[in-house]
Amino acid sequence: MVVNADNKQVKTIAVVGGGSSGWMTACLLNARLNEDPRRPVTITLIEAPNIPVIGVGEATVPSIRRTLKAIGISEKAFMIGADATFKSLIRFEDWNKGEHFDHPFDRRERPNSDPAVLSWLARNQMGGEGFSNRFSVLSNTSTKGLAPKALGWPEYQSTFPYAYHLDAVKLGKVLTEFGTENGIAHKLAKIVNVEISEAGDIEALVSEDGASYRADLYVDCTGFSAHLAKHIMPETQDYSEHLLCDRAVTMSVPYEVHRPDRILPYTSAKALGAGWLWDINLRSRRSLGYVHSSAHLSSDEAEAELRVIEGRHADNIEVKHIRFKTYKRNKSWHRNCLAIGLADGFVEPLESTGLYMMQFAAQSVADILRFNRHFDAATTNQFNKLMQTLFDEILGYVALHYLTSKRRDTPFWKDATASHRTPAALQNLLKEWKKRPPHDVDLLSNHRLFSLESYEYLLFGMGYMSEGQINAAPVVFDQTDMLNKVYAKFPEHEDWLSSTLGHIK
């Protein structure tokens, strides 16, 4: 229970809201905070029964491997249960008409390759050989349809970073079973009242059947509805002026309906007239989603376009329409209420950052409370700064995809690429990057999701080249030997999946 208004001790945590976000948060907190059995923390997850869930294919970033390993679940069990496949990169198509580029997860060998990057840039300012093809191994292996690791390698390990495509609903079920088996109390209850103390803390949660739930720390994982956070820290900031997309129409295509030639080890993000289309390959189905701007395309029009793109076999497949907003809560943690995931904020689905922001928040809270089970206003203020910095970084990087596009062929692209859409933190950098390539000095935070290489893959892939002449001596960065070794060792993506996880439908 709360000790006093200023310094709160955490012996009990209530996570409200299930699904992949709630259960991953609860499992991670449980694993990290209960490493020392002498100072146990009781964790209870409360979720309403029979709440409809939106089952879409989810793409992730490589940090999810660290999170799942920390939780303690095996990679094989997770991948089977969540219908998961590998993800080595995102392939962007038609963000400049008729072109594509990759944002892979591997980093080139630095600093040895830095002179070669300048050499490439000096000779390719008007276009030419793809940057990722020259400097990324995973860009080449993905084109060949290879897995990012060899058969028999240890779980969660590879020479190269990788992530997953997964079914978020199935992941939630996997973590529900794992979490309850490892000591998390699971309560099915619909919370209808949040009792607030005079000091401004949550005092108790009251369910529909009259039961009362009390804890030292309440974690809101209830999505956009933010059932707890809206009472404690209601102020939010709308960032839709920077990112126009606010809708998605999604479709799942089972392989028994239509099976592609191969299950791709990467996410496809294809630009369309009023947004972009994701294509994610799971073990049993493909997940498609047309992310679009409702100001430029209606939901019915987006659905019709999606069905035409997919083909006649999709005529009878049900679609789902999703509304979202790009926003951030002014405070992520205030007093004894912590908002995580969609309850705290969201940047549109491009670059697969949703689950990452949730993981980062849960991991940070675990690190804060791991050695000292107390928190106060200084703790929450520092956490809030951290989460706002991360949000601003992700917002800016996602906005770069639109701002650097040369497309102006539809009203959406004319609007999305307008200079006034630029977040404040990027305004000077975009001017600088026209004069010179990006540099580490441009990226100030130690807690960054996107490295210098991520900016290079995006800016050079989009042809956002320096206006000034770059003088650099010819330098060769040759990956031939490495690629030959990888090609000889890494199997086809489907071969790894079937050999390790079992038969693919």
UniProtKB/TrEMBL annotation:
Q: Which SUPFAM superfamilies match?
A: FAD/NAD(P)-binding domain (SSF51905)
Q: Report any Pfam family annotated for this entry.
A: Trp_halogenase
Its keywords, alphabetically, are:
FAD, Flavoprotein, Nucleotide-binding
Question: Which GO molecular function annotation, any one, does this entry have?
Answer: monooxygenase activity
Q: Where are the transmembrane segments?
A: none
**Sequence positions that bind 7-chloro-L-tryptophan:** K87
Write the protein's name: Tryptophan halogenase
Positions annotated to bind L-tryptophan: E351
Instruction: Cite the binding residues for FAD.
Output: L342
Catalytic residues of the enzyme = K87
Source species taxonomy: Bacteria, Pseudomonadati, Pseudomonadota, Alphaproteobacteria, Maricaulales
Natural source organism: Litorimonas taeanensis
